[in-house]
Design brief:
single chain; 259 residues; alpha+beta; Fructose-1,6-Bisphosphatase, Chain A, domain 1; D-Maltodextrin-Binding Protein, domain 2; 2 domains; seven-stranded mixed β-sheet
């Protein structure tokens, strides 16, 4: 049986999906965020309000960190924190694509303990609990068994394969891409892809839920310099992410070793 925090996240994600579906492909109102941080839609904001109200009402002692809520220092004093992205892949949502996701996580003292990545238009509910494994629509997940780097499939944008990132040589993998970071991580946990890479600094709300799905599926996830990830930082920005099954993670890091 899922623990109470995971059950809470699943229920909230389902409601987020209902809101998103109501706005999807119906020309939602769109604004540009200050500082070139991309678009936000009325659906993002409506989902954010719903999540904040419902989750913090259920767990009043938990802190709150969301892409669409102004951040503050109060969460830093809390042992437990919700870290959410109301819609990960907003541009895809605006374009009428189906591969956007809701990313919801609970952390305890910087470690993710419960996680959901939900793609409502594709009916895919990825879940994970610390020490209890990961699942897709209730079926257990396992990272892929690929050992050979040339056979590996890796989700990453093209700039991540610039030679200056790889002192040991650019990896000889097959590259693919999905717009949602949370979904990319979930696909690694599912074993559909062997790894994912982003060298860009990444917001915690894009990473937290997917990170637990990867690790609970038996994969490895680190920052771009092979350091473990910790969440609920004063500035919630992580120095890149590399996630993969264990052999491919080791192979990628071997090529990064001189960085």
């Amino acid at each position: 049986m899922p623990g109470p925090d995971l059950t809470l996240l699943v229920d909230a994600a389902l409601e987020a999906g209902r809101i998103a579906e109501r706005h999807w492909s119906r020309d939602p109102q769109i604004w540009d965020k200050p500082g070139g941080h991309g678009p936000v839609t009325e659906a993002d904001l409506e989902i954010d309000v719903m999540l904040r109200e419902s989750l913090t009402a259920a767990r009043p002692g938990y802190g709150w960190l969301s892409e669409e809520t102004e951040d503050g220092a109060e969460r830093l004093s809390r042992d437990h924190v919700f870290i959410v992205d109301p819609i990960d892949g907003t541009r895809s949502f605006i374009d009428g694509q189906k591969n956007f996701a809701h990313s919801l996580a609970v952390t305890r003292q910087g470690q993710v303990t419960a996680a959901v990545v939900y793609l409502p238009m594709l009916d895919r509910m990825f879940t994970a609990e610390l020490g209890k494994g990961a699942a897709l629509n209730g079926a257990p997940l396992a990272a892929s068994g690929t050992h050979d780097e040339p056979s590996a499939t890796v989700l990453a944008s093209r700039p991540n394969f610039k030679p200056d990132h790889w002192p040991g040589g650019v990896p000889t993998v097959h590259r693919s891409f999905r717009p949602s970071l949370a979904y990319r991580l979930a696909l690694v946990g599912q074993g559909r892809f062997d790894g994912m890479i982003t060298f860009r600094d990444s917001w915690e709300w894009d990473i937290a839920a997917g990170a637990l799905i990867v690790s609970e599926a038996g994969g490895l996830i680190s920052d771009r310099d092979n350091r473990p990830l910790a969440f609920n930082n004063p500035r919630p920005l992580l120095p890149g992410v590399i996630a993969a099954n264990r052999p491919i993670h080791a192979a990628l890091m071997a090529r990064r070793a001189l960085a």
